[in-house]
Amino acid sequence: MSLTESCCNTPPVQDAQWHNKGEQVALSQQIAGEERTTYRTGPKDSKRGLIAIYDIFAYHPTTYQFFDRIAESHGGFQLSAPHIFTKGGYPPDQMGDSAKLMAWIGANGDYKGNHIDEIIRVAVEDLRKDGCTSFSIFGQCWGALMSVKAASEEGNPFLAAGGPHPSFFSIETVKDTKAPLIILASKDEADMVPVIDSIKHKNFPVEPFHKRFDNMHHGWTGGRGDWSQPDQFQAGLEAVDLLSGFFAKAASASKL
């Protein structure tokens, strides 16, 4: 798997601001003997659940805004964004060193080794207890890969997966997905059309979707996003609409 080069070189935005609409709540089960929390947002009467996986900088004002807006779009979703990097996200002062970044991801962001699979399962069950009957999952950058890994598990509940500016995406990493993917690439990722085309033969109820934002940099919807800039804000709102629309369509298709 290859890392998007700009993932190593683009630092997080330091002065972004957003007033969170949701709140941190405890997951109902311990993970590897530890209490864990998740950011919950969106209308509590929605029956559509979303799992969101942040990027390597963990929670960030732009990330919260992105999650809050998705949770309120296309009729609303109960969104749960688990706190995975409890020791903090990737240190910005180590930007530019791809070896250090890969080592950090290996130590902190391994799907099985860091119990991310278990965290996701508990977050889903908590959404189910709160009335959700359908589920999709998405992530940003590294988080998008986590969403595909979750959607590739046998018996997983997800109707759709994917996310914006994905890292480590290839035909190989998506080949086992059991759900249609939405890929919103930036100008910095490799061509994702072959990746999305490689799963279209699976005849999902919803057609896999791809759009490239040629005027956006890697990470614009998350820690690297500065939505005080009008172009980033407008592209962010478009990403919100595309993702929430895709997940709403997947939820509707599941009832046919």
TrEMBL record:
Domain Dienelactone hydrolase span(s) in chain numbering: 38-191
Organism: Lobosporangium transversale
GO molecular function, one term: hydrolase activity
Protein name: Dienelactone hydrolase domain-containing protein
Pfam family of the protein (one): DLH
Domain of life assignment: Eukaryota
